[in-house]
# Entry
Amino acid sequence: MTRYRSLGLFLVLAAVWGSAFMAIKAGLAYFPPVLFAAIRYDIAGVVMLAYALYATDVPLPRDRAEWTEVAIGAVLLIALYHALLFIGQTDPTVTSAAAAVVVSLSPVLTTGFARAFLPSERLTAVGIIGMVLGLVGVAVLSELDPSNLLAGGTVPKLLILGAAAAFALGSVLTRRVDSDLPIATMEAWAMIGGALIMHVVSLALGETAGRIVLNGESIAALAYLSIAASAIGFLIYFELLERLGAIEINLVSYVAPIFAALAGWAFLQEVPSVATAGGFLLIFAGFVLLKRGAIRAEITAWTGTDARTAD
# Structure
């Protein structure tokens, strides 16, 4: 039963984070990038702190390990990731396809960091092939033009790559600390700390509140990103991080573009192309390679036949 709950939460997270790219694009038309990210986590942090006060007996970190976990989350998962991502995506030379491919490098980067910090979570050679195949699927799904990816916008793309690296490293280090701090409390204080860091960065960049335009679209984008993508999304993320580990949970980067494509078809009448279908198949094949052991175990449970031990 636990595995089905994990799968359900994983799909919800992919759907929420996939659709969040549309909200980010909409909001950046009305907010300075880093200030937009900071306000997003001001709201999300307050919401999560209220939830932590209600749902846990530990609304405040108590020892060095717990504050270390909060600091990792605030600096890497919240502040550095979002500041670099939002700044990079504002550059007109960076296409959505290029940004999606760079961000989807996070699972590959996570594997590299896990090899250094979490030896027990190392992938086999076949698993690494599966991750690369999933990355190729994301590129195909995005109908990526390699010449467009490499032409111009080098610095913004490097910023987005830095964002992916920050998130991957934060995922691994958060799991390495392994404190007893409740997920909701850790998330709340990481968001609040990350928001404060981004406010400082925003001021240093000369961003001002006077550049904010409030209307129905900008408020809707901010609300969706703050509540659904941030508060709820990260609550699911950290729960799955404890269950699945840093490598597997960051595979959400491969699944989120699928939900983005489905949302485009459902709400914007965008008809999936042959490239989209090919991307789906490649991503699915990558997951089959990565989860081949779990799939064998599931088939054994359903059929009652023998299968090799899960990887």
